[in-house]
Every structure is written in structure tokens, then in C-alpha cells.
């Protein structure tokens, strides 16, 4: 191991703070001075600006991506007796939303190349109880929303996008989140657009859905202390509105930088016996995920050399203890299983320097004896 051992973190959120700190400080102070802690003007301003950014009519700010998915399910009228299609290779929260409303998740396998929902498999698993489909724009890469739209129209399904990893990603030049009935975002700190804590939002063009979700997030309070239905405390915090508003100004630049880092990885990893992610227009590179049967050994090798990596995600949904009730065999969803066993997320964040990308790729090349 070399003397000047590099440390390459998986992400660097302090770097993002340094970019916005000077501009954000007065607005953070104003939040305290005016006690605008729950919802408030900064949240409203962020909702309007994010709606413009996405090209949708409404954005409803909430306290997490999971809450966003939950409210979208309720607004779409999904409930007991209904079923919802979603990929087996995703973060578990995609399935939580379906379970929260008492509906049944119908897991689908994913595409070998992209890791995104396999619509041919969705077609096979679709039955008359299925009311909705949740395409997940995993890793920052958009699902083919033309194909999803055509499939949903044919089967009469509601489309709810899980865009938690894809702020700014586009399908055919149109940002994700506005292609269906509702698009759900997470602003968990590590996402491409991240809060200083927990936050999320739902995008929609449906005025009725937006109004219902605004009410639901705030205890279903029509008039003050009059509660129209079962409500929730899913309000976005004022401070998160401030931070998200400032970071949104940089999102396109940061996504472009992610794209350049992905390009460097592509060049410097070329020729090695690992599968690199595909390059498509509109990809915002939330993660740069390579695949190899030697995943665990490569991860350990990189760790020993000061390079942090991640696994997104090592256990597919049909193997999760909480979903054992769905009754799937461990080896069903063969493509999802392969993704789970072989995926390795390399460091990826907009503050990453070229020399850090080089340090990562040199270490990977060393693993394959091509240093
Ligand atoms: C992060 C994430 C969520 C959940 O968002 P939270 O803000 O953590 O609740 C949902 N789906 C996917 C695909 C995610 O990556």
C-alpha cells in the first residue's frame, strides 16, 4: 500500500454546504427570527420553483420520500384489494407505500442492462386487481416513460413515479416526476438534491390530487382544528425549504459534473472485466454502479486502499423478511438477484476531483492486475 494512501469518500455533503453557505446563512437566520419552522414561506417558494424546474403544475413538500409515496398512493385511491406493480430491485420504501395503504405489491423483475423495471415481466404479472404501476428511476436513470405510459393506458393503470434518485433526470427531454399521475421525490441528504435532514415532495399536474395531499400532510386540516379525514403530520420543515431552495440553483451544474465523472470512469475503466453502467441521454448519475461476480472481493480491496463504496441494493425485495408473506421463492426474479449480488457503487458526488476518480480507477485496475 502506498505511503500517501488516498481517502476517497463515497460522498461529501460538507462540500455542498460550502457552495451554498454564504447565500443561505441570512435565510436560515430569518427562519429562526420568524419561527417559520413548519411549512411557511421558504417551503412555498421552493415548491413553486421546483414545480417550474420539473415543468409540472404543482409540488407538495413533505417530510420524506417515503411520505411522498404514501400520499401519492392515497390520492390515487389505492387501497385494500388493489395491487401495484413495482420492481424487485429497488429501495424498500417503494414497497412501503403500497403496504401502508393495505394494497399488495406485485414485484417484477428488472432489465439486465439498466436494472430498471422489466415491462414484459410487468405485463405477465398484471391481473385485474392491479391498479397502478410504480416505475423507479433507479441510480438517476429514467425508465422508458413512453413504454410505461402505453402499458398503463392499455391496462387502465395509474402511474406513480418513484423519482427519489432522479432529480433533474429526463426522459426524451422532459424531466421525470411529471410523466404520470404523481412523481415522488426524496431529499434525503445524499440524493442529488438533498436537504439538511429529512424531506420529500410530490409533483403532479392534477389540481385535486395536489389539494388533497396538501391537506393530508397537515393533519387533513381543512379549517383550523377541523379534520376532514385520516390525516398525517408529513409537513416539510421551513429550514429544509431554505436549504433546498439554495441547492436547487446548483442542481443542473451538479448533475452535469456527475455526468463528467461518469465519463471519466467509463474511460478509465474501459477494458476491465466488469460491467459498466449504460450511458443514455438525461441520466443524472445519482450512483455509478458497476457489476462483477467478484463484487465482495473488489469492495474489500478498495476499502483497504481508502476508497469507500456502497451496495444499492444487496437484498432484492422478494428476499426481504418483511415481504416473505408474498410467497416468492428466493431464486425468483433471477435478474434482480444478479444485480443484488454483483452491484457495487463507486464514489460519486459533484465535489469529487478528477484525481479522486483517478485514484479509484487505479485501485480497480490494480485489483485486476492491470495497475
Ligand atoms: C431514498 C429513496 C426513497 C425513500 O426516501 P426517504 O426520503 O428516505 O423516505 C424511496 N425510493 C427510493 C428509490 C429511494 O432511493
Briefly characterize the structure.
The chain has 371 residues and is an alpha/beta fold.
What key attributes describe this structure?
371 residues, alpha/beta, binds pyridoxal-5'-phosphate, 11 strands, two-stranded antiparallel ribbon, single chain
Would you kindly provide a written description of the structure presented here, covering whatever features stand out?
This protein is an alpha/beta fold. The protein folds into two domains: 15-247, Aspartate Aminotransferase, domain 2; 250-367, Aspartate Aminotransferase, domain 1, CATH 3.90.1150. Helix content is 40%, strand content 12%. It has helices at residues 13-34, 41-54, 65-75, 93-100, 119-125, 145-155, 207-217, 238-248, 251-269, 295-304, 334-342, 354-367, and strands spanning 58-62, 83-87, 104-108, 130-133, 158-162, 170-171, 174-175, 182-186, 200-204, 288-291, 343-346. Helix 1 (13-34) crosses helix 8 (238-248), helix 3 (65-75) runs parallel beside helix 4 and helix 3 packs across helix 7 (207-217). The radius of gyration is 21 Å and the shape is globular. Bound molecules: pyridoxal-5'-phosphate (PLP).
Amino acid at each position: 500500500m502506498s505511503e500517501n494512501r488516498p481517502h476517497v469518500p463515497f460522498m461529501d455533503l460538507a462540500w455542498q454546504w460550502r457552495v451554498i453557505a454564504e447565500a443561505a446563512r441570512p435565510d436560515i437566520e430569518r427562519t429562526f427570527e420568524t419561527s417559520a419552522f413548519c411549512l411557511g414561506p421558504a417551503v412555498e417558494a421552493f415548491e413553486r420553483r421546483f414545480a417550474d424546474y420539473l415543468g409540472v403544475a404543482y409540488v407538495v413538500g413533505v417530510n420524506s420520500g417515503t411520505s411522498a409515496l404514501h400520499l401519492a398512493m392515497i390520492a390515487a385511491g389505492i387501497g385494500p384489494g388493489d395491487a401495484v406493480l413495482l420492481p424487485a430491485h429497488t429501495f424498500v420504501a417503494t414497497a412501503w407505500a403500497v403496504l401502508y395503504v393495505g394494497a399488495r405489491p406485485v414485484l417484477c423483475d428488472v432489465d439486465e442492462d439498466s436494472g430498471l423495471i422489466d415491462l414484459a415481466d410487468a405485463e405477465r404479472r398484471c391481473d385485474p386487481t392491479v391498479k397502478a404501476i410504480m416505475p423507479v428511476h433507479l441510480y438517476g436513470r429514467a425508465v422508458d416513460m413512453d413504454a410505461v405510459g402505453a402499458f398503463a393506458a392499455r391496462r387502465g393503470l395509474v402511474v406513480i413515479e418513484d423519482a427519489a434518485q432522479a432529480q433533474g433526470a429526463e426522459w426524451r427531454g422532459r424531466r421525470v416526476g411529471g410523466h404520470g399521475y404523481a412523481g415522488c421525490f426524496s431529499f434525503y441528504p445524499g440524493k442529488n438534491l438533498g436537504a439538511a435532514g429529512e424531506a420529500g415532495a410530490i409533483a403532479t399536474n392534477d389540481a385535486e390530487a395536489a389539494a388533497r395531499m396538501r391537506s393530508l400532510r397537515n393533519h387533513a386540516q381543512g379549517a383550523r382544528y377541523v379534520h376532514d379525514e385520516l390525516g398525517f403530520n408529513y409537513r416539510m420543515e421551513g429550514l429544509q425549504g431554505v436549504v433546498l431552495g439554495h441547492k436547487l440553483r446548483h442542481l443542473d451544474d451538479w448533475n452535469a459534473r456527475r455526468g463528467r465523472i461518469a465519463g471519466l470512469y467509463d474511460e478509465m475503466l474501459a477494458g476491465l472485466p466488469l460491467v459498466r453502467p449504460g450511458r443514455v441521454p438525461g441520466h443524472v448519475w445519482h450512483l455509478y454502479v458497476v457489476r462483477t461476480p467478484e463484487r465482495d472481493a473488489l469492495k474489500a480491496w478498495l476499502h483497504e486502499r481508502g476508497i469507500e463504496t456502497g451496495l444499492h441494493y444487496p437484498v432484492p425485495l422478494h428476499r426481504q423478511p418483511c415481504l416473505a408473506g408474498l410467497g416468492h421463492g428466493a431464486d425468483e426474479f433471477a435478474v434482480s438477484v444478479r444485480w443484488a449480488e454483483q452491484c457495487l457503487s463507486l464514489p460519486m458526488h459533484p465535489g469529487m476531483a478528477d484525481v479522486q476518480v483517478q485514484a479509484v480507477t487505479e485501485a480497480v485496475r490494480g485489483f485486476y492486475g492491470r495497475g
